[in-house]
Amino acid sequence: MMTIEEHYNAIAPRLTNWLVATGSSYAAACDLVQDTFAKIWKMRDDLRDNDSAVSGLAFTIARNLRKNAIRDDRRLVFSDELPETAETAAPPPTTAETDLDYLRKRLQDAFAALPPALGEAYTLFQIQQMSVREIALQTGVSENLVKVRIHRAKEKLKPMLADLRVTF
Predict the structure, then answer these.
(1) What confidence tens digit (pLDDT) does each residue in 75-109 have?
(2) Domain residue limits, the chain
(3) Spatial separation of the C-alpha atoms in residues 137 and 15, rounded to whole Å
(4) Is residue 18 within 8 Å of 60, Cβ to Cβ?
(5) pLDDT tens-digit profile of 36-62?
(6) Which of 141, 113, 111 is nearest to 126 (CA)?
(7) CB-based contacts of 54: which residues, under 8 Å, 6+ apart?
(8) What is the mean pLDDT of residues 134-162?
(9) SS3 labels along the chain
(10) φ/ψ bin of 94: left (φ > 0), alpha (ψ from -120 to 50), beta (otherwise)
């Protein structure tokens, strides 16, 4: 059986990418991943010896934590932000940071434009690298429907992200 640290190293990058691809900001995704593994750490003694079950558990916990955060955000009332002064202003981002932020934003917008069922199936397949069978079990639909959703998501994303494709 893998240790929690080994599970974290294997799952955290894919979980973060999945959260970003399904609409969370990168910072929020990182926080959700940390909270997810804190919960897994608390329940480490109750986990079965099945290493593959931890991956599904992590994605389920992260999805539920994100739903709770969205629900809680709806209840918040924000006060006006304090204006930035010269001392508190952040330094301007570098070109690489700007490019990365632009790409993240484009991907977030593209995935947000997908119907939720298509986005979930596609990100579980591409980012989480789950099999069609695992996705079908997790989402409660047939394997054929999972394949259709992945294909439809890919076809919808192609035109939205066509200008980002690198041709050699």
Answers:
(1) 655 545 445 555 555 555 566 677 778 888 888 88
(2) 4-75, 95-164
(3) 18
(4) no
(5) 988 888 887 777 666 667 888 888 898
(6) 111
(7) 2, 7, 11, 40, 47
(8) 92
(9) CCCHHHHHHHHHHHHHHHHHHCCCCHHHHHHHHHHHHHHHHHCHHHCCCCHHHHHHHHHHHHHHHHHHHHHHHHHCCCCCCCCCCCCCCCCCCCHHHHHHHHHHHHHHHHHHHCCHHHHHHHHHHHCCCCCHHHHHHHHCCCHHHHHHHHHHHHHHHHHHCHHHCCCC
(10) beta
How many Å apart are CA 110 and CA 112, to the nearest integer?
5
CATH number among 3.90.1150.10, 1.10.10.10, 1.10.260.40, 3.40.50.10490, domain 95-164: 1.10.10.10
pLDDT band at 155 (very low <50, low <70, confident <90, very high): very high
pTM, to two decimals: 0.48
With 0-12 CB in 10 A as exposed, 13-18 as middle and 19+ as buried, what is 135?
Answer: buried
> Residue 156's pLDDT band (boundaries 50, 70, 90)?
very high
